[in-house]
Amino acid sequence: MSAEDVRKRLLREGAKARRAAMGPAARAAASLEICRRLASDPRVSANLSQGRTVAAYLAAANEVDLSQFISVALAAGARVVVPRRDGAAYSLAELRSLDACGLESGPMGILQPKAADGEWRVGSGEVDVWLVPGLLFDGAGGRIGYGGGWYDRLLAGARADAAKIGIVFAANFLAGAALPVEGHDIRMTGVATEGGGGF
Length: 199
Prior knowledge:
By secondary structure, the chain is α/β, with parallel strands linked by helices.
């Protein structure tokens, strides 16, 4: 294991510990504030209309929960897409509702839309704004995820003009740091936290 791999592992462990230390009530309150900020962010709100596509996600344990924002986006007429397991990788699938009857449990217990094979895939190039989860973000758009590279592969097909906003709790937005990122890592154009975020 290289020194950079060790550094990333330690950064991930620290980020997970800080997130878990917040407790369920604090995470829920922070998630609602992040959803509120997203709905009023011009880069995002401009895409909450008919025909615009917003890529969000359905939260894993301890992640920022975007359910409130997703409900607002769907009510505004936006097309919301989220990751869905697609064989050995992930693709984007349209999310029509947060109703449990339209969702199923995917890998690691993360919810995903039910979908008939071959009828659900949405291309990354169709997305106007991305809301990207991560363990850590820095002030230059660097991101550290869980290490699987799933989001980097999805973002590889993103349009250059699409907004890419990292979603993270404020304790894990290291605005003054420089995270160890590689050449293939996709940088964010902004970060949203309960404290505001940046750039």
